[in-house]
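sorry for the late reply, my laptop died twice this morning and i had to redo everyting from scratch. anyway the thing you sent over, i finally got around to it. pasting the sequence first so we're on the same page, its 209 residues, then the predicted structure underneath. double check i copied it right bc i was rushing
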Amino acid sequence: MSEVEPTHVVPLEAGAGPENPPCPACGEPLFGWVGAKPGLAGPVRRCESCGLGVLGEPAGAEEALRDLDRLREGEAVQIENRAGFACSLGGAGWSGLHPGTRHLFTVESVRRLVARRDQVVKQRRWVPGAGLAATWQTLLNSVTFGRNVALGAVRGQPPVPAEQPWQRRIDALASIVLAIPALLVAIPVELAGGLSGHGAVIRIQLELF
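ok and here's the structure:
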């Protein structure tokens, strides 16, 4: 009988280097995820440990915490979840890739970041309405030249319009014609994500140790 070769697990730290700087939340290497796109601060890296995404060159935990505080409402923060089903489905077309955004949060990355200032995640809650809208827009992004065109018109969120006028006209038409079909797909996707802890939008309650 032949012997089975042992399986060697390569730690994430082995990937650390100039091209894979440390994650601001947990210190593990950041790996490439999405290339540079119009409207974004640069290419996007992601942490395979805590899930944090970083656009452009990463800074430190303090900058990430400042970005997190911009999402604060009282003692809670509401994040577009980079660990959600919508993000996994959309990839580069994920609706959470907004102009001016630097950090793309997950519940785990929030937990690690706020621990630096003696806070803990007390509760996490899926936000179905906002999550469904994000998943719906992510699906529409897969068929448009620009990004977040529909939510830009409906909710006033900053879209990334297509470069050419004819492309923008097609995007407007596609967003109208495909709105209902995209919604019919988005409902079961977001429902499955929310019930499994991978909803597109999560509200996180924080408290001190």
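The mean pLDDT is 89.
thats about all i looked at so far, will dig more tmrw
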